[in-house]
Design a protein that fits this description.
The chain has 474 residues and is an alpha/beta fold. It has 16 helices and 26 strands. Helix content is 35%, strand content 16%. The radius of gyration is 25 Å and the shape is globular. Belongs to the transferase hexapeptide repeat family.
């Protein structure tokens, strides 16, 4: 039986009367309004922080704060972000320990492209990460433009637009932006070394609280590991499986900015020094790592293995490889490397999920890497491009891991993961514990999965050419 509700003029009058009465009550009792507003803001802040994977302890978000791409954030310990902050984090943001950001803060990490096919600009983006160092104080109404680095211990005065790098310990005044003076570095170092950090919720942190702060990646030593793969190779499942262990925290793709960094390095569009500098800010600037064993699973780590292996000399690597048939079927079903995704189709990208567009923008393309000509790459079918990707990505993993000491890497087939768990735990240095290995993956339910029964003779030929002859799996 259907129920129909009819709102009469009397209903609307009573609703208006209630609103008016409630507003009068709040005007006469501002403390009640303050409590309600604070509860609402705190609830919003908790929901927002829950979506940021890489964050330390004591992070406070006050009031109405917008972060467009939470996965693009790396936030250290004891960080405060004030009311009405807007952070467009598509390009990646790192905020170091004990940094205080006042209200009405505006930060962008990307610009629209304006020299392509539309006026005043088109739908493309140029991503430029922003780094805010540790112990920085950012005043009210500050704007930060894409690509800026604010150094350790700097102070940014009210109303400043930060459009160029700020050196460590500089104090920047309001427009016109200028250096007013420098902090007393000896005093600064004394406060830092004796852990005299700021307040959280109005209460100064004690040494016992400071000792609970999280670590940077280098401090993890051999308790840090990375899971490498092609994507659609069990990278999400293995994080869930390992996180069941009492001594492990494992996250899937917690550093969104690796998408851009990894691909631009492959394309030769950024220098070795730029890669090293950004990786250092991602892994060492903000202390976001728990004291137990910690792992990150991310396909975009692959081109960066040599950098990470050198910067974190005790970290370990897990190569998780899935058979090419199922991997290619999965990636192809999800629209990887289609003409539409590569911009070869005239259709506009519409109704993309929040992160899908960025993943597509930074999907590695063989011609841009310099492995195939543009005509060869564009002449491939989407299915063949996926076959090429499986082979190329796994061969890169093998090539980069081979020079490392054998104690630092292990190769596991996804199909044998359940039986390999004891060996994996031993490799990581973990005690043996019972772990459930059957993990449901709801992502498959959102896509019509292509199967080998759907393959044409041309697809079978492409698969043999790229995925069988190389002997990477079989």
């Amino acid at each position: 039986m259907k129920l129909f509700f009819h709102y009469s003029k009397l209903d609307r009058l009573l609703a208006a009367l209630f609103r008016h009465t409630f507003e009068l009550y709040l005007n006469e009792h501002p403390e009640v309004f303050h409590v309600l507003r604070t509860r609402h803001a705190n609830a919003n802040g908790k929901r927002l922080l829950a979506r940021i994977k890489n964050k330390g302890e004591g992070v406070i978000v006050n009031g109405e704060v917008t972060i467009t791409h939470p996965l693009g954030m790396v936030i250290g310990n004891n960080v405060h972000i004030g009311n009405n902050a807007y952070i467009h984090s598509r390009g990646g943001v790192v905020i170091g320990d004990n940094t205080h950001i006042s209200r009405n803060f505006l930060l962008y990490t990307c610009n629209h492209t304006y020299q392509e096919g539309a006026l005043p600009f088109d739908s493309g983006y140029i991503d430029k990460p922003v780094v805010i160092g540790r112990n920085v104080w950012v005043g009210m109404n500050v704007n930060v433009t894409p690509g800026v680095t604010i150094g350790e211990g700097a102070i940014i005065g009210m109303g400043v637009t930060v459009s160029k790098d700020v050196a460590p310990f500089e104090i920047i005044g309001s427009a016109p932006s200028r250096i007013l003076k420098h902090r007393h570095q000896e005093h600064y170092r004394h406060l830092h070394d004796t852990k005299q950090f700021g307040a959280v919720n109005g209460r100064r942190l004690g040494n016992d609280q400071v000792s609970q702060f999280r670590q940077d990646a280098r401090s993890k030593g051999s308790k840090l590991f990375f899971v490498l793969g092609t994507g659609r190779s069990g990278s999400t499942s293995i994080t869930k499986i390992l996180s069941q262990h009492s001594g492990v925290t494992c996250l899937h793709e917690p550093k969104f900015q690796l998408l851009r960094l990894s691909t631009l390095w492959l394309y030769g569009e950024i220098s070795k020094e730029e890669v090293e500098r950004e990786l250092a800010t991602l892994f060492l600037e903000a202390n976001v790592y728990p004291s137990n064993f910690y792992g990150e699973s991310d396909q975009k780590l692959v081109p960066l293995i040599p950098f990470i292996a050198e910067m974190l000399p005790e970290a370990k690597f897990v190569w998780l490889i899935r058979n090419p048939r199922d991997t290619v079927n999965s990636t192809f079903s999800r629209g990887w490397f289609t003409d539409w995704e590569l911009g070869l189709d005239a259709r506009e990208r519409v109704d993309y999920p929040l992160y899908r567009e960025v993943y597509s923008d930074y999907r590695p393309q063989a011609d841009k890497i310099g492995l195939l000509s543009t005509n060869e790459w564009q002449g491939m079918s989407a299915f063949e491009r996926n076959c090429w990707y499986w082979t190329y990505w796994n061969s890169q993993i093998g090539r980069f891991l081979e020079p490392l000491d054998a104690s630092r890497h292990i190769k596991i087939k996804l199909e044998e993961l359940a039986s390999s768990i004891p060996d994996l735990l031993t490799f990581l240095g973990l005690a043996q514990e019972p772990i459930m290995t059957k993990i449901s993956n709801t992502a498959e339910n959102r896509h019509k999965l292509h199967t080998i029964d759907d393959w044409t003779p041309e697809m079978q030929s492409s698969f043999k050419k790229w995925c069988v002859a190389n002997r990477l799996y079989y």
